[in-house]
């Protein structure tokens, strides 16, 4: 099913240097499908996204069991994944980072280089969800955003390639 860019729900998450744009084109409330969840994230140069670090590998009221793939364009940047092993990967256009379990984040855009990633998730639950649990050591970060402004470079807008109205896609 085709969904035009003008109908994609766009949100700006975080604040300050944790500001990022999320294009929810295949999020549970935006697009109907069985298991797949997918969003685009645009992180302006010098900013962090997927932050604070979080996980979604335990079935609970607050967390869904999901495996995750990040496909990157732009960069250079970095992606951290930790749990069983602690990995900090340098990423740029065409790179993929797999997150089968454990905490992940931040995704970091190097200063001067915007970072885009396609974030694809799927899990065994009958209902699609993006529910997650922040790493308790870093959960306080969310409350710090109340006193910060959103990065003025966001949101970004482009024209729908199929000739539709302007949408909020990177």
UniProtKB/TrEMBL annotation:
Keyword S-adenosyl-L-methionine in record: no
Molecular-function annotations in GO: glucuronate isomerase activity
Keyword set, alphabetical order: Isomerase
InterPro entries: Deoxy-glucuronate_isom_IolB, KduI/IolB_isomerase, RmlC-like_jellyroll, RmlC_Cupin_sf
UniProt KW Iron-sulfur keyword: no
Domain of life per record: Bacteria
UniProt record, GO biological process: inositol catabolic process
Pfam family, one: KduI
PANTHER family tied to this protein: 5-DEOXY-GLUCURONATE ISOMERASE
Protein name: 5-deoxy-glucuronate isomerase
Organism: Streptosporangium canum
Lineage: Bacteria, Bacillati, Actinomycetota, Actinomycetes, Streptosporangiales
């Amino acid at each position: 099913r085709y969904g035009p860019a003008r109908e994609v729900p766009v949100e700006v998450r975080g604040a300050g240097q944790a500001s990022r744009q999320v294009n929810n084109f295949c999020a549970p409330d935006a697009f109907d499908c069985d298991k797949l969840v997918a969003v685009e994230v645009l992180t302006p140069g010098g900013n962090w996204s997927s932050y604070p670090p979080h996980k979604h590998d335990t079935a609970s009221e607050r967390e869904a069991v999901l495996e995750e793939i990040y496909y990157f364009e732009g960069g250079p940047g970095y992606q951290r994944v930790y749990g069983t092993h602690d990995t900090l990967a340098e990423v740029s256009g065409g790179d993929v980072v797999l997150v089968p379990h454990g905490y992940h984040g931040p995704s970091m855009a190097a200063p001067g280089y915007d970072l885009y990633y396609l974030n694809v998730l799927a899990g065994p639950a009958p209902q699609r969800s993006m529910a997650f649990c922040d790493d308790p050591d870093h959960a306080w970060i969310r409350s710090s955003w109340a006193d910060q402004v959103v990065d003025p470079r966001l949101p970004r807008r482009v024209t729908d390639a199929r000739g539709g109205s302007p949408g909020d896609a990177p």
